Amino acid sequence: MIRYSFLRSAALFVLIPAISSTASAQSSGSESDLAAKLTNPVANLISVPFQFNYDRGIGADGKGSSTSYIFQPVLPITLNPRWNYIVRPVISAATQNDVNGFSGTGVGPAVIETFFSPNTPGPFIWGVGPVISTPSMSGNNFGTAQTGGGVSAVGLYMKEPWTFGMLAYQTWSMGGSDVAGTANNTYWQPFVSYVTKNAWTYTVNTQSTFNWDTRRAQNPVNATVSKLVMFDKMPVSFSLGARYYLSSVPGGPSGWGGRASVTFLFPK
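RESULT FIELD:
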């Protein structure tokens, strides 16, 4: 069973070449600064990404495929001059094709990640807070029926033009049927990004999930390239990339897949 709450995105960290006349112009310093901020999951920056993932090799016979659609806005809240509170709801839908004989579209579990993060200068940045996951909104074909709760954390080091970091969370089951899987999961996402002076970003990350009940892990590696461009005064980032599953859960995706995203930025 595919758990679409774990097909995440790293739309925050990665975005692609834009095909437009502005893409050929030299980017301003503010554009490269915004591109760098996008590599920080707890930046004091409102962003609204829409991500698309394609996976194959799904189901007992390996003949199924799916396209997932992930909406993951990042909402920073200033608590005081020293602290920010970052809210990252992740809402995923998917279209499945011939997955164990099933084809259809539905909405999976929603995951709400939150982080208390100090608003202090310096290359080391961190955040920690509660996380909660809901049951699948469209039945057992789209993820677990359990509710999960736990803790999320992020830490990173930013030194121009590089960003190195890790985002992770642990959820425990808070009730619900385990027929379609459980919410006892550890998720971890190490990432490295390189941002050029003309606002291109190159990123490699993994989005790994380990389920403590099945003792199985799913480990997709994502490599993406992105470009931030300005449309009038609106910064928009486009991305394209490939993914490969180093390992998967029984019936989960395998081999190569693809990813694309578009992210709208609203600097404060």
